[in-house]
Amino acid sequence: MQLVNVRVDSRLIHGQVARVWTGQLGAERLMVVGDKVSKDDLEKTALKLARPTQAALSILPPDRASNNIVQGRYADQKIFIITREPEALVKMVDAGVPIKEVNVGNLPSGEGRLQLFKSVGVNDEEIKAFKELDARGVKLYHQMVPNDPREDFMSELNKRMEK
């Protein structure tokens, strides 16, 4: 099993993920991870329709996704993990999933959210999860599409929190 990308994106599977990221990475399986999405039949149907044809799709809660990865269920596949819940990634790291880097691609802006990048706003729960990932040695960066430069996520978060 090779984790080709781990991305936090509130939109989950959309044009950039389905066409640009999946193709560029050679991903063979999109793994959408989250407690809420894994229980929402309507959203699961929409994700199945959005799935690029060249990739398999799993929609799982963090514990089941972690168990499948740790048990080697996808041993011969290139996996692209996508979640809108950074807390899910903390659970996965704690369960032994070898996540080394996380691409924070898109989280909504709005009231009660700290704006970090044009397309990334974070709330207190997400900030806590990102700090926990950082403390576990996971490198966090922001990159919208593969051709964009990577921007240091934690550096920007720490700078914005000082203000």
TrEMBL record:
InterPro entries: PTS_IIB_sorbose-sp (IPR004720), PTS_IIB_sorbose-sp_sf (IPR036667). Pfam families: PTSIIB_sorb (PF03830). Keywords: Cytoplasm, Kinase, Phosphotransferase system, Sugar transport, Transferase, Transport. Its main location: cytoplasm. Residues 1-163 form the PTS EIIB type-4 domain. It is found in: Cytoplasm. The keyword Coiled coil does not apply. One of its GO terms (cellular component) is cytoplasm. It comes from the Bacteria. One of its GO terms (biological process) is phosphoenolpyruvate-dependent sugar phosphotransferase system. One of its GO terms (molecular function) is kinase activity. This is PTS Man IIB.
